[in-house]
Amino acid sequence: FIACQKGHVDAARLLLDNGAEVDRADNDGETPLSIAKSEDYSSIVALLEEHINPLHAAAKTGDIDAMTQLLNDGAEVDRANEKGRTPLWIACLKGHVDAARLLLEEGADVDGALSEGPFKGKTPLIIAKENGYSSVVALLKEHIYRLHAAAKTGDVDAMTQLIDDGAAVDQTKEDGATPLYIACETGHIDAARLLLEEGADVDGALSEGPFKGKTPLIIAKENGYSSVVALLKEHIYRLH
């Protein structure tokens, strides 16, 4: 506490390296971090934050080995720092795709948006897009739209599991594409059948982009998937 109050960063580092309690407050409720902030000792603040949130620090540099060890030791994958940023948000801010992938595999919340500050409302996907990290954007979209991804490859087993786990059968992407639209666009009849059996909207059309207004039936026709066309027509006939 005294080292942080006086701005002695090397002394603070030595104490932390030897197990000093970083969160301990004095009788007034002040912690080493709060006192360093009030005195505007930015280097000490950075040092303390690194010790308080080591998973965030590792995500910031993309240190997969350190992140793996921290997670194995019980680090909370979705713990937010004082700015509300999760390790995934930071990994996406810095463009570390492997770090983001690891966190997603460990169950990180892909939709977590900041609740305050200059980046209020921004999710990992938004911040990755704004910074031009296309590989991170692709990874996040694949995770967000997992049912779409499974429909694109016709992986019925994966689709069944996702639906059983609560995936929204009519979730739309930015252009309005549903999993059914994707299945019909790529000609996967078994995937389309499963989605229809689960109540997918057969008439859902794209809302924007070069294929705006096209329905699953239209795209299946245009791509020459006659068996998918027959399936959709049969379903439409039964509905009407």
Structure, explained:
By secondary structure, the chain is mostly helical. The protein has 16 helices and no strands. The chain folds into 3 domains: 1-52, Serine Threonine Protein Phosphatase 5, Tetratricopeptide repeat (Alpha Horseshoe); 54-144, Ankyrin repeat-containing domain (Serine Threonine Protein Phosphatase 5, Tetratricopeptide repeat), CATH 1.25.40.20; 145-239, Alpha Horseshoe (Serine Threonine Protein Phosphatase 5, Tetratricopeptide repeat). Helix content is 57%, strand content 0%. The termini are far apart.
Order of helices and strands: HHHHHHHHHHHHHHHH
**Annotated CATH topology of the largest domain:** Serine Threonine Protein Phosphatase 5, Tetratricopeptide repeat
Fraction of residues in H or I helices: 55-70%
Give the termini distance in whole angstroms.
Answer: 74 Å
Low-confidence residue ranges: none
Number of helices: 16
Q: Report the β-strand fraction as a percent range.
A: under 5%
Rounded mean pLDDT is 88
Number of domains: 3
- Total beta strand runs: 0
Question: How many whole angstroms does the radius of gyration measure?
Answer: 24 Å
Q: Quick one: CATH superfamily of the largest domain?
A: Ankyrin repeat-containing domain
- Structural class call reads mainly alpha
Sheet having the most strands: none
